[in-house]
Structures are given as structure tokens and as C-alpha cells.
Write a structure and sequence with these properties.
With 183 residues, this protein is mostly helical. It has a domain of 124 residues. It is built from 3 helices and no strands. α1 runs antiparallel to α2. The longest helix is centred in the middle third of the chain and has 137 residues. The mean pLDDT is 83.
């Protein structure tokens, strides 16, 4: 970069000298023209100096920043491509995943139906068994109640018959027989 600035300054100086010689043919304007070119050379030299001094670090930092941004953009592009590939893969497998979920739901539905059917059959058998036991218990209770009622009725009927046959003479004979048995 310094070499370029030096070459440029030299070219400007030569151009100024050549122009000064060419315009020296005029009488009063040659001095003024010389100062214009001298001013131009000083200004060009100052610009060249500052460009040579501050330009390379600025351009190096800018170049480094651009390279860093390019690397970051490349990394971001790769990540985006990876994410896009993953999404495309998931979309490609989506149909298979949906079919698998439907099959799994269908299998679970069948298993649940079978489980409910077994549970219902077991509960029905329990209810049937309990009903038979209750019917048997109710029949047994009714028979016992019927026997108790029949016994009560027989006793009541016997009592009526005994009362109908019992006369004061029969009572006296029974009491005598009882007293005899006691002795």
C-alpha cells in the first residue's frame, strides 16, 4: 500500500512539473499556475499520507469484519439447511407416523373393547351368582317362615282342639294323673 502511495505521489509530482513547463510560455500566469500546482501536490501528498497511514488498518479491520460476517453467515446457512432438512425429513415421515398412530389407536381400541367385554362378562357372572344366592336365601327364608307359620298354625289348631275337648272332668283327670306321676 505504501508503494502505491509513493508511486502515485511521484506521478503527481511529474505531472505537475510537466504542466508547469508547458504553461511557462505565458508571462504572468506562470507564477500563479505554479502555486496552484504546488497546492495540488501538497494536498494530494497530504491525502496520500493520511490514506497510507490510516487506510491499511481501516481496510484490514474492515476485511477482517467482512470475513467474520461471511463465516457467521455460512454457519447460519448450514444450520438453516440442517433445520430445513430435518423438517423435510419429518414431513416425509409424517404420513408413516400418522398411519402408525392410527394403527396404534385401532389396536388400543380393540384391546379396550375386549377388556370391557371381559369385565362386563365377569360382572354379569358375579351379578348372576349373587342373584342365585339371594334367590336361594330368599327361598330358604320363605321355607323357614312357612314352616314357622305352619307350626304356629298347627299349635293354634291343636290348642283349639284341646280347648274344645277340655271339659272340667277331663281337666281333673289330667291333674290327678300328673300328681300320681309326681309321687
Amino acid at each position: 500500500m505504501r508503494r502505491v502511495v509513493r508511486v502515485w505521489l511521484m506521478a503527481c509530482a511529474m505531472a505537475a512539473a510537466a504542466l508547469a513547463q508547458e504553461t511557462s510560455g505565458g508571462e504572468g500566469s506562470s507564477g500563479l499556475e505554479f502555486w496552484k500546482w504546488a497546492n495540488f501536490v501538497v494536498l494530494a501528498g497530504a491525502i496520500g499520507y493520511f490514506a497510507g497511514k490510516y487506510g491499511p488498518p481501516f481496510f484490514a479491520a474492515r476485511s477482517h469484519s467482512i470475513r467474520k460476517d461471511i463465516v457467521e453467515a455460512e454457519q447460519a446457512r448450514k444450520e438453516a439447511e440442517a433445520r430445513a432438512a430435518a423438517v423435510e425429513q419429518r414431513l416425509a415421515n409424517l404420513e408413516a407416523d400418522i398411519a402408525a398412530l392410527r394403527a396404534e389407536a385401532r389396536d388400543e381400541g380393540r384391546a379396550e373393547t375386549e377388556r370391557i367385554a371381559h369385565h362386563t362378562a365377569a360382572e354379569s357372572a358375579k351379578i348372576h351368582s349373587n342373584a342365585e344366592q339371594e334367590i336361594a336365601a330368599a327361598g330358604k327364608a320363605a321355607r323357614m317362615e312357612l314352616k314357622a307359620y305352619a307350626a304356629e298354625l298347627a299349635i293354634s289348631l291343636a290348642e283349639q282342639k284341646i280347648r274344645a275337648r277340655m271339659t272340667p272332668a277331663t281337666q281333673e283327670a289330667l291333674v290327678r294323673g300328673f300328681v300320681r306321676d309326681l309321687k
